[in-house]
């Protein structure tokens, strides 16, 4: 692809800020970075904008994950995490096969489908939450199918469009984890999953000699925004944190669904 223009670089800088801020303190907000990265690429070329933007975005996500793990590493709930990883790995492989064969790889179809899936999950989660409030049964989901389904869906969507944030947030909300456990578990999950994706994205040519120097240039932005996210998240109460995450999940799902209309005229 052509080298990015100044406008494209500025948009990627904003993308980097959102990545650091969300990874370290406000999970779910990072989904805003997905269409921004695609728009940054689309400024210079409309062809395959979402596909190429994944190569710019993934190293930024890994940098944000490393920062989050460094701070929240001791807060992770490994029992909840281990249930997700096997299905997520399978999901990444399935996503790779879909991307490599170009099945479903149509920006105008793929992202509305992903956004629709997440919104459906949100609706189911709220129905379940309402039913639990009425019955007084507030148990977390215990069946093996729940983490398997969330992990598989998250793995596929993260490979195809770096759009697993809302899905992971829904899972952790369902587990009713305290704020710091929520952040620590999410940090480890995404670091492991995104590192697993790197060789595949390199093989596809989406991480390359053009994207990596730009990622390195944007690293200070990720660090500053990540520290800001940590400071603000620590000041939020548990209840406020839950409300913020729930709201970001819904906003994120809508943004993913309308992404093609944001990127393309």
Strand content: under 5%
Which sheet architecture does the biggest sheet show? none
Structural class: mainly alpha
Give the N-terminus to C-terminus distance in angstroms.
19 Å
User: What order do the helices and strands follow?
Assistant: HHHHHHHHHH
| Mean pLDDT over the full residue set | 81
Unreliable segments of 5+ consecutive residues:
none
Task: Output the number of helix runs.
Answer: 10
Characterize the overall form.
globular
How large, in whole angstroms, is the Cα Rg?
Answer: 17 Å
- The figure for the number of domains is 1
Secondary structure: number of strands: 0
Secondary structure: helix percent? over 70%
Give an overview of the whole structure:
The protein has 265 residues and is mainly alpha-helical. The protein has one domain. 78% of the residues lie in helices and 0% in strands. The protein is globular and about 55 Å long.
Summarize the structure.
By secondary structure, the protein is mainly alpha-helical.
Draw up the topology in text.
Elements: H1 6-24, H2 33-42, H3 49-72, H4 78-100, H5 107-135, H6 145-161, H7 165-174, H8 179-203, H9 211-235, H10 238-263
Key descriptive features of the protein:
10 helices; mainly alpha; globular; 265 residues
């Amino acid at each position: 692809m052509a080298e990015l223009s100044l406008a494209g670089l500025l948009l990627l800088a904003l993308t980097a800020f959102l990545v650091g801020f969300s990874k370290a303190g406000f999970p779910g907000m990072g989904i805003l970075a997905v269409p921004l990265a695609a728009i940054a690429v689309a400024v210079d070329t409309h062809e395959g904008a979402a596909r190429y933007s994944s190569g710019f975005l993934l190293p930024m996500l890994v940098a944000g994950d490393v920062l989050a793990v460094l701070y929240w590493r001791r807060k992770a709930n490994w029992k909840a995490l281990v249930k997700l990883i096997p299905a997520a790995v399978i999901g990444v492989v399935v996503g790779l096969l879909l991307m490599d064969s170009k099945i479903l790889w149509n920006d105008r179809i793929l992202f509305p489908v992903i956004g629709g899936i997440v919104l459906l999950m949100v609706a189911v989660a709220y129905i379940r939450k309402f039913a639990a409030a009425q019955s007084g049964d507030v148990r977390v989901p215990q069946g093996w199918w729940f983490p398997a389904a969330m992990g598989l869906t998250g793995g596929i969507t993260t490979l195809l469009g770096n759009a697993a944030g809302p899905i992971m947030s829904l899972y952790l909300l369902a587990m009713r984890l305290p704020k710091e456990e929520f952040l620590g578990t999410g940090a480890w999950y995404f670091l492991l999953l995104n590192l697993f994706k790197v060789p595949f994205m390199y093989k596809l040519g989406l991480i390359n000699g053009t994207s990596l120097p730009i990622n390195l240039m944007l690293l200070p932005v990720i660090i500053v925004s990540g520290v800001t996210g940590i400071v603000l998240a620590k000041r939020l109460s548990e209840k406020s944190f839950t409300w913020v995450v729930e709201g970001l999940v819904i906003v994120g799902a809508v943004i993913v669904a309308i992404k093609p209309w944001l990127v393309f005229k």
